[in-house]
Amino acid sequence: MQILGENLEKGFLIAKVDTKDKFETLKAMSRVMVEKGFVKESYVEAVQEREKVFPTGLPMEAFGVAIPHTDSVHVNQKAVMCGVLENPVEFVVMGDDEATVQVEVIFMLAILKPDDQIAMLAQLVETCQNVSVLQTIKEAKDIEAITEIMDGLMA
After folding, report:
1. What is the DSSP letter of 21?
2. High-pLDDT (> 70) share of the chain, %
3. Under 8 Å between Cβ of 113 and 87
4. Is 78 in contact with 116 (CB distance < 8 Å)?
5. 8 Å CB contact between 103 and 91
6. Which is nearest to 3 in space by CA: 143, 102, 145, 120?
7. What is the DSSP pairing of strand 96-110 with strand 12-17?
8. Of the candidates 116, 51, 53, 49, the residue with the CA atom closest to the CA atom of residue 80
């Protein structure tokens, strides 16, 4: 995993991720969140277990996105890690246990206050519906542009 950008004060990370499946991806991303102090060690397993029960894949117009997260008891500080995947990985679609989507971008959330979850998810879904924003993130060439996007999410 290559960290492309970060703002620890605002609570976001941007990384290129090269993994083979969703659980390897979730583990790798959550390990970085632990290392940066955003989440507790327990987050690593908790986010994987939650994904099994409450899938987070979203088929968007541009490509698939996932928004994994878990309970605030595993969180030290509010944060979002944006993972740009080198190779798409399959996630089960949120709200449809039968459907899957090939995910290319993951927004891993660390939500400290449970009341913030709905607002953060709504803001992320709105962001993901903008095809040009998703393409900017996926191409990951202009880190300043991606940093601006993440800055806006964490405002």
Report:
1. S
2. 100
3. no
4. yes
5. yes
6. 143
7. unpaired
8. 116
Evaluate whether 58 touches 94 at the Cβ level (below 8 Å).
yes
Residue in the block written with tokens 């891993």 = 108
**DSSP letter (8 states) at residue 74:** G
Q: What are 37-52's pLDDT values in tens digits? A: 999 999 999 999 999 9
CA-based nearest residue to 107, from 90, 91, 121: 121
* Residues linked to residue 122 through DSSP beta bridges, in sequence order: none
Angle at 126 between CA 47 and CA 53, to 5 degrees: 25
* pTM higher than 0.90: yes
Provide the CA 151 distance to its chain's centre, in angstroms. Answer: 15
Give, in order, the Cα–Cα distances in Å from 113 to each of 32, 69, 75. 21, 12, 9
Phi, psi dihedral angles at 107 (to 5 degrees): -110, 100
Write the single-letter amino acid at 110: A
Q: Does 24 have pLDDT greater than 80?
A: yes
Exposure string for 18-55, b = 16+ CB within 10 A, e = fewer: ebeebeebbebbbebbbebebbeeebbebbbebbeeeb
User: For residues 65 and 55, is the Cβ–Cβ distance under 8 A?
Assistant: no
